[in-house]
Amino acid sequence: QPHFHFPFSLLVMVMRQYVPKRWSEFIALLSLSTTFFLFLQTRDLSMQLSNERIKHTAEGEEFLETDTILREEENEEKSRTIEGDVDAYNEREFYGKLDPMELNNTRKAKKEILFFNRVPKVGSQTAMELLKSLSIKNNFHYHKDKTQKVETIKLTYNEEKRLSNLVNTFQPSSVYVKHVCFTNFTKFNLDMPIYVNMVRDPVERVISWYYYVRAPWYFVERKRAFPDLPLPNPNWLKKDFETCVKTNDPECRYLPGHRRDGFGDHRRQTMFFCGHADDCTGFNTEVAMRKAKENVEKHYAVVGVLEELNKTLTVLEHYVPRFFKGAKDVYYNEVKIFSKINRNIYKPTTAEATKDIVRKNFTRELEFFDFCKQRLHKQYLALNLDQKP
Predict the structure, then answer these.
(1) CA pair distance 345, 53, nearest whole angstrom
(2) What is the Cα–Cα distance from 28 to 262, expressed in whole angstroms?
(3) Fewest CB within 10 A of the end CB: N or C in the chain?
(4) Which residues have a Cβ under 8 Å from the Cβ of 267 and sit 6 or more positions away?
(5) Is the peptide bond between 79 and the residue preceding it cis, with omega within 30 degrees of 0?
(6) Which of 179, 266, 276, 377 is catalytic?
């Protein structure tokens, strides 16, 4: 008995000396300390889980890719030499005096409806997040088409009409986002929306798409949305782009004029700008490229370039201010947060020699891409932002 009584007495003496007189104070202090500790632990775990979720989702993959391209762009700007300034000067000399009003199709709009008929794998996920944030700051409505089991970008006449009527029902000021080819609303006696879109080096885009559809989280997301979808063949998943090109695999065979309708054909950017006509579906054709150029020139306020994101955001701010006012600040202070994680592990580096093989069959796609870049440069130069007074 004495053996057990002594430690207890000692404990009582210690508690009387160091513990608050009222037990309620002690319990409250202990509870507060425990709660604070758990809060810190939960917050850290939540941030880690959030980063992992972003890293392994479609959105995260594109944020990563966009951020990587932007870092490369920033590094190029930092290492800019006198030669770069000479190029800018030569551009001004070549284009002559540019009027931003003449280069801005926004002035033709009769109502404040923005249509972003987004091309996949060109930073469009980032642009969507940007528009969502801007919708709050600039007070406009944001609408996005729901995810489809089979995404149809080439529509029939009646489907085009339904789409045009749908967009026309939105209350100004509104944005609508959808993967779909260009539609001319005037053929249904409706006012044209303000069109914007993005483009990217077509070969880099094709490689990006190739690995995008093979990433594990892509199938997890698709399976969650559509449980009846079959799982892909493991051999198909393991096939890398270089092997696909060098073995002349049908998936990586880019034949001029070849038609492959539907959302599965991601070889062409031109189709998104050309429209829904049969002439727009052939791969790397002159007619599709010409029509795409014509539509961009006539109907698009801005076609941004992923590799020149800073310039794109600047042009959007000035040419479509109702929707893109403050775009650069919002991007760098809010949207770019999502890309503060490691690069996507599912997209290995592709040799330049392999890219060169592919480029030989992308001549008109590359010409259209260069056309969009030149147009963006002209719009930027017309603003005279880098002219010293």
Answers:
(1) 14
(2) 64
(3) C
(4) 202, 206, 254, 260, 283, 365
(5) no
(6) 179
Answer for the pair 280, 291: CB distance below 8 angstroms, yes or no.
yes
- In which element (H, E) is residue 174 found? strand 174-177
**Phi, psi angle pair for 143, to nearest 5°:** -125, 140
Nearest to 212 by CA among 56, 377, 20: 56
> How far is 152 from 160, CA to CA, in rounded Å?
11
The conformation of residue 338, written as its DSSP 8-state character, comes to G
CA-closest candidate to residue 127, choices 188, 200, 189: 200
Higher pLDDT, 146 or 366: 366
| Stated pTM of the model | 0.77
- 191 phi, psi to nearest 5 deg: -70, 145
CA–CA separation, 266 and 209 (whole Å): 7
pLDDT in tens, 249-286: 988 988 887 766 444 456 789 999 999 999 998 889 99
141 included as an active-site residue: no
| Polymer length of the chain | 389
Question: Which residues touch 122 (CB under 8 Å, ≥6 apart)?
Answer: 198, 199, 200, 205, 269, 306
Adjacent-strand bridge partners of 305 = 199
Cα angle, residue 37 at apex, residues 31 and 41 outer, rounded to 5° = 140
H helices present in the chain, as ranges: 2-18, 23-55, 58-78, 82-95, 124-137, 157-169, 202-212, 216-225, 234-238, 241-246, 270-274, 286-299, 309-319, 321-324, 327-333, 352-359, 363-382
Per DSSP, 233 falls in state P
Is residue 184 within 8 Å of 192, Cβ to Cβ? yes
